[in-house]
Structure formats: structure tokens, C-alpha cells
Design brief:
alpha+beta; four-stranded antiparallel sheet; about 20% helix
Length: about 90
């Protein structure tokens, strides 16, 4: 039986390249992320002169090989719940 859909295959090289690029972007945003004390960063999101909100990145936990971050949007739209997520950064894998 032929379904017409190809099975999903993970491209490990592309995935690793994407992870490495994201790690480098985070390190530019939070260069002292691996420091002992918790840090935070706020970035204004705008479109032209119109402020869309503020992206907040907070360091929740620092360990020798990992860092946990909370990424959320502040001052967003009143009718739309603000997105929030937790990210674990693996420094040993980069």
C-alpha cells in the first residue's frame, strides 16, 4: 500500500548547524550567561517607530555544563497572552 507521503527523516547535520547558530546568538545576547550570578536581558521589539513589546531573557539556573533560561514577552498585546518558554542551554555541546 502506497500512501504518497514520504517518511520524515532528520537531517542531523542541519540540526546540529541550527543548534550551533542558536547557541552563538544566545552568547551574543547574554555574553556573561555562564557567570555565577543570575543575569537578565531586555530587548525592545519594534516595527519602525511602533513598540511591539519587550523580549525578556532571564537566567534561572547556572550549572557547570548547562544554563536554564526563561524567555518571555513583556508589554505585548492586551488581548493576546504573552508567550513564555524555558530553554536549557548545553555549554558542553555548544
Amino acid at each position: 500500500m502506497v500512501t504518497g507521503r514520504e517518511r520524515y527523516r532528520v537531517d542531523l547535520c542541519e540540526l546540529q548547524a541550527s543548534c550551533e547558530a542558536n547557541y552563538q546568538r544566545l552568547m551574543k545576547l547574554l555574553p556573561d550567561m555562564r557567570a555565577g550570578s543570575p543575569r537578565a536581558r531586555r530587548v525592545a521589539l519594534s516595527q519602525g517607530e511602533h513598540l511591539l513589546g519587550v523580549l525578556a531573557v532571564d537566567v534561572l539556573e547556572n550549572c557547570p555544563y548547562t544554563t536554564s533560561l526563561r524567555v518571555r514577552q513583556e508589554n505585548g498585546l492586551p488581548w493576546l497572552p504573552a508567550p513564555q518558554l524555558e530553554v536549557r542551554v548545553y555549554h558542553d555541546a555548544r
